[in-house]
Design a protein that fits this description.
mainly alpha
Length: 121
């Protein structure tokens, strides 16, 4: 293995660990950080969005299990929200392939801005 590949893998591993830790700590947001990092690493917009969701899934599952064990998840809320999020995730993934990347990037930036603004209020 060459040093270039080894260094890239080390950066990906440490970046992934940081994103996973943020996702676990904040209950989300890791994907919002992953997309720009993946784009900076050379992935196209669609591949960066798809990869971010794919790598956030295991982090979210692990964090979710910890939250369940700690009693942070109200059981009455879990199933209906889980079903809604699953349906929305399916349709959102289908839209990624249909919408122009410029529209996806705009929606992504708008969502990041709105989420940040909401947190400050």
């Amino acid at each position: 293995m060459s040093n270039g590949k080894s260094g890239a893998d080390a950066r990906r591993l440490s970046g992934g660990a940081l994103i996973g830790a943020i996702n676990g700590l904040l209950g989300g947001g890791g994907g919002m950080l992953a997309v720009p990092i993946l784009r900076a690493g050379g992935l196209s917009g669609r591949k960066a969005h798809a990869t971010a969701i794919s790598v956030i899934l295991p982090a979210s599952l692990v964090s979710g299990v910890v939250y369940l064990i700690c009693g942070f998840v109200p059981a009455a809320v879990l199933i209906p929200v889980l079903l809604g999020v699953s349906a929305g995730g399916y349709f959102g993934a289908r839209l990624l392939n249909l919408l122009p990347m410029r529209a996806v990037a705009f929606l992504f930036a708008l969502l990041m801005f709105a989420a940040g603004w909401r947190m400050l209020l």
